Amino acid sequence: MGDPLYILAIAAIAATVIVLVIGIGGFGAGGAFNARNANKMMRLRILFQFLAVVFILGYVYLRSQGGQ
């Protein structure tokens, strides 16, 4: 639980969920916020998803090699 890579993976997952919820909320509400930020929210979500996958794969790889 105290592994820095594990903590980074959880943080990236949480950031992905937060950006996804904000993006869906903005899309549902429409208006100026959605017009201004829809593309930015999608790009941020993709970035955080990529980071989460990299951190998870790194964590799994290192754990399989016996590193803690």
UniProtKB/TrEMBL annotation:
Domain HIG1 spans what residues?
1-68
The record, for InterPro entries, names:
Hypoxia_induced_domain
Q: Which PROSITE patterns does the record match to this protein?
A: HIG1 (PS51503)
Q: List membrane-spanning regions.
A: 6-32, 44-62
**Could you tell me which Pfam families the record lists for this protein?**
HIG_1_N (PF04588)
> Keywords, A to Z?
Membrane, Transmembrane, Transmembrane helix
- Which NCBIfam families does this UniProt record tie to the protein? twin_helix
Name this polypeptide is given? Hypoxia induced protein region
